[in-house]
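User: Quick one: structure for sequence A, then sequence B.

Assistant: Sequence A:
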Amino acid sequence: MMDPEESLWHASREGRVVRVKEILKVHPAVDVNWKGDGESTALHQATFFGHSTIIEMLLAHPAIDVNLRDGHQETALGKACEAKQVLCARLLLKDSRVNVSLPNGDQVTPLSLALSSNLISVVQWWIALGLKVGPKPSPPPDSNWKTPNFAQLLLVIFRSDPERVRNEIRQELGLTAGTGVRTSFLSCLRSRTFLFPS
């Protein structure tokens, strides 16, 4: 028979809302930060598999540590961005305890993961909440993030710094000279009102 911590971990992974609620009620002192496979917590599991209701329940527990890292040094927010779980990412971004700048083991931040996954709505939400953006995120290893969406995301992130946008555009046009990506990039820049209608 599994102990409450292991049961909570598995129920969070499997999306068993009623079971999670039961465990948290019957065992209020349960270690919600207990780590299972891959050194991940129940919050990591619920986030990666998109169980938003369980995330809300775990975030409501007074002992939850929202910034714990798993075996890959990934936070729950990083997992949400990596797995393209938009709703889960938004729930975590709304929680003031979440450190949005913590990188994973490859030194890739959650914002970089959101960018590489083309999660435009997450990045827009990030900016709307006034969260820290910091320097231009670096792309995750082995990723091909120089896509048309990069132009849109660039305008979102650096909208308050026109000179920085110009410099980034110059760099991007140089990197993509003579390719179809360059044409797509310019097309996205011309349609920037898609993100910010006047």
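Sequence B:
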Amino acid sequence: MNVQQRIKDLEDQLAELKKSLEVEEKAEWPQDGGRYYAINDDGSIDGVSWDGDEFDLGCQQIGNIFRTEEEAQAEVEARKVIAELRATEGRVEVFAASDVCYGLNVSGMVDIEDGTFDFFLAWESQDAANAAIDKVGEERIIAAAKHLGRL
């Protein structure tokens, strides 16, 4: 077999694999009898079999269904990080573009005085923001932000 024919065969195989992946992605999930993972009120995770009952639908409506236990664990950790950050001193709610505070975003700590902000949470001073980062841990904050689609 010549090289060009081998390349064509591999391209054909790749196209078939892509098609099968598209079909798999379009399949409704979860399906009856399929497994999903849900977070309990104490942060523990249960594997649950989907049967479309009230519990399943309730979990689905609030986004509490995960394909893997690892996805559910990442969500639990992200929620813990948010709770710990919210409990730090000097955290503020930003209500107006004129509010001066410091937030966490892709660039790190920024003075958002100009009102162009998109961040995780905010603090009244850079010292308060840095103290929150030190307390909770920069790596945990970054992992939570990535999980939540903020980085």
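The helical segments are 3-26, 54-61, 69-86, 126-136, 138-147. The first helix runs from residue 3 to 26.

User: Thanks, that's what I needed.
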